Amino acid sequence: xxxxxxxxxxxxxxxxxxxxxxxxxxxxxxxxxxxxxxxxxxxxxxxxxxxxxxxxxxx
Length: 59
Fold this sequence. Notes:
Blueprint: H1 2-41, H2 46-58
């Protein structure tokens, strides 16, 4: 019984870990996208940055 509880607990923790990792990855992508957009605002790549942001937020 104790072993079964341990396995269930490990699965739950692993799922939360994966969700947290995906969330962090999305936050990093969003931050990179924002920085790229700021750079592009002063250059000629505004349309490229918008498409990159769209891809980053959808992924």
